[in-house]
């Protein structure tokens, strides 16, 4: 049986309660929503805030260069987007009428490449795609997220919500148990965040590199001993849509620095 309730936040993480087939939907109250930045140490927060020291800007600068360069098969991105793409990333993932599917920013960039530049799609976690995604997302830094999960995107949103709430893996844990029911609590040496994606692509100290939100989702699935989905899997895009709509109103931060 499904039921909704405002977060109580009282159970311990591995209140990792008894295995259950039920999906218990719990939602964050609007006034509880905070960015992952709030859970960083003062040192990491300072690193993120310093545009000269933040290592994520290596990818932003590379993306700026790629955005302005013509490629062998077609024109440069800037030939269509001379005024930039300010605010665009704050509206993604979004439904695309042409493909009748929900695209994340990576998908939108690859759609432009194949449709307008005659080029092949870039692979997830490739330096080129991370750089272009970081550059486009950075143009929305400070812009409140405003993602529409209604209309033709509604069923995809529901898929993402269900994935977020469903227990999986050998630990039988759902995303919701950590990031909605127990955020702010300590898990080993870490503090659980609310799991928002407003800083991605982000530089993670653990990776010593830039990475996409889907890389982070795969890490979470691996952490609960579940088989991660392939990059670009429609279910991960659905989770991205759910997370973005869940954080509507939070400001974009990319390139953020995370633990």
Describe the structure.
This protein has eight helices and nine strands. Strands 8-7-9 form a three-stranded mixed beta sheet. Helices cover 33% and strands 10% of the residues. The protein has helices spanning 42-49, 57-68, 105-116, 127-138, 154-165, 175-179, 213-223, 234-246; strands at 4-6, 25-27, 94-96, 101-103, 186-187, 190-191, 202-204, 209-211, 256-258. Mean pLDDT is 91; it is low at 1-20. The protein is an alpha/beta fold and 259 residues long.
Tags for this model:
single chain, 259 residues, alpha/beta, two-stranded parallel sheet, 8 helices, 9 strands
Q: What strand order characterises the main sheet?
A: 8-7-9
- Total helix count? 8
Q: What string, H for helix and E for strand, traces the elements in order?
A: EEHHEEHHHHEEEEHHE
Query: Quick one: biggest sheet?
Result: 3 strands, mixed
Chain-averaged pLDDT: 91
Share of helix, binned = 25-40%
**Strand elements, count:** 9
Percent of residues in beta strands: 5-15%
Instruction: Identify the overall geometry.
Output: globular
Question: Structural class, judged by helices and strands?
Answer: alpha/beta
Residue stretches low in confidence (pLDDT < 50, at least 5 long) are 1-20
Q: What is the rounded distance between the termini?
A: 36 Å
């Amino acid at each position: 049986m499904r039921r909704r309730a405002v977060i109580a936040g009282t159970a311990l993480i591995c209140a990792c309660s008894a295995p259950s087939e039920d999906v218990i939907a719990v939602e964050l109250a609007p006034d509880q929503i905070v960015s992952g930045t709030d859970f960083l140490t003062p040192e990491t927060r300072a690193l993120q805030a310093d545009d000269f020291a933040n290592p994520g800007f290596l990818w932003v600068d590379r993306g700026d260069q790629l955005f302005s360069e013509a490629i062998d098969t077609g024109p440069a991105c800037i030939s269509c987007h001379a005024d930039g793409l300010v605010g665009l990333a704050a509206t993604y993932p979004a439904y695309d009428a042409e493909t009748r599917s929900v695209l994340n920013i990576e998908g939108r960039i690859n759609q432009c490449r194949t449709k307008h530049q005659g080029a092949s799609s870039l692979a997830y976690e490739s330096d080129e795609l991370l750089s272009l995604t970081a550059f486009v997302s950075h143009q929305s830094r400070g812009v409140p997220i405003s993602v529409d999960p209604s209309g033709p995107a509604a069923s995809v949103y529901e898929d993402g919500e269900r994935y977020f709430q469903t227990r999986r893996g050998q630990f039988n844990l759902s995303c919701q148990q950590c990031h909605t029911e127990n955020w702010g609590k300590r898990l080993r040496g870490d503090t659980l965040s609310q799991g928002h994606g407003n800083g991605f692509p982000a530089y993670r100290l653990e990776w010593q590199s830039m990475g996409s939100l889907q890389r982070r989702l795969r890490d979470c699935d691996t952490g609960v001993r579940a088989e991660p989905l392939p990059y670009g899997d429609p279910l991960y895009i659905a989770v991205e849509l759910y997370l973005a709509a869940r954080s509507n109103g939070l400001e974009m931060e990319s390139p953020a620095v995370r633990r």
